[in-house]
Amino acid sequence: MNFKFLDKKDSRGIVNNLFSISFTKEDLPFKTIIIPIGLPSLVYIFSKNQTVLFNKKITPLQGLTVSGQFSSTYHYHVNDESYNVGINLHPTALYKILQIDISTLTNRLVPLIEIDKDLFKRMNPFFLNYKQDPSSFITNIIAFIESLELIDDKDVKHIDKAIAYIDKNEGMINVLDLLKILPFSQKSLETKFKKIIGITPGKFIRLSRFTKLMRKYEDKKLSLKDLIHKYNYYDHSHFLKDFKLFMPESPKSYFKNEYPLIKSYSKDL
Asked: What does the record give under GO molecular function (predicted)?
């Protein structure tokens, strides 16, 4: 398994990063869990034998696929040699591009053609034509993203401000803190945030804190005990509560296993 970040961004903050991942015969069958990272994505799947298992539902993956926000970990299986390339997007980017209620994509991976046929027709050729030329792919897909018309109304600007505040504080805030910097009631914030991001602000905040802790754990920068303290969990039991919310297995099971893909994609997000 070979995972690479392709370090390039656009001028409007739509792209968080680009990435590629490849699997050889030696990797197969490949099975892992994927920890949600709070970023939607667009991914091109260049094989037929990849699936996602979430809430006991199997979703086959192929072609240009949109990934919405996931509220907890899912299982990812690869059974054929493959190459995927994708774009991790800013949390508000899907809404700006697709201009639909993004909560309809929560916990789902959906072919782009089923959501926006026109965007699919314009975007799909970049992935096919530059499959063997990553440098040209990056240049051309970024130029295409720069050309897109985006929705950027007052609500989006306020939610962008909320995301920046959550990120700056590494998820160590609560919803009441957001209400202090935004002109919304709590009910209005919940509604607008879920429509634009896909999940509620409370869930996004908890996810942000948890994933930042887990990424630092995978980087071995601090011990788990020190990380629990650093990220303002009152004690180990409060951390376990979030762990059970986002993960499909016990901490004991997770920490004794190796997940090379998680380590790879956790480094530079």
From this structure: DNA-binding transcription factor activity; sequence-specific DNA binding
Give per-residue pLDDT as tens, 38-82.
Answer: 999 999 999 989 999 999 999 999 999 999 999 999 999 999 999
For the question of whether the overall pTM of this predicted structure is more than 0.70, the answer is: yes
DSSP the chain: -EEEEE----TTS-EEEEEEEEE-GGG-SEEEEE---S--EEEEEEEEEEEEEETTEEEEEEEEEEE---SS-EEEEE-S-EEEEEEEE-TTHHHHHH-S-GGGGTT-EEEHHHH-HHHHHHHHHHHHHTTT-HHHHHHHHHHHHHHS-----HHHHHHHHHHHHHHHTTT---HHHHHHHSS--HHHHHHHHHHHHSS-HHHHHHHHHHHHHHHHHHTTSS-HHHHHHHTT-SSHHHHHHHHHHH-SS-HHHHHHS--HHHHHHHS--
**Total of domains in the chain:** 2
With 90 as the cut, is the pLDDT of residue 92 above it?
yes
For residues 110 and 219, give the distance between their C-alpha atoms in angstroms, rounded to a whole number: 31
Last residue of a domain, one of 129, 147, 165: 147
219 phi, psi to nearest 5 deg? -80, -5
**Residue 91: both structure tokens together:** 């949390």
**In a shared domain, residues 9 and 137:** yes
Q: What is the pLDDT of residues 203-214, one digit of tens each?
A: 999 999 998 888
Parent domain of 184: 154-266
For residues 202 and 181, state if they share a domain. yes
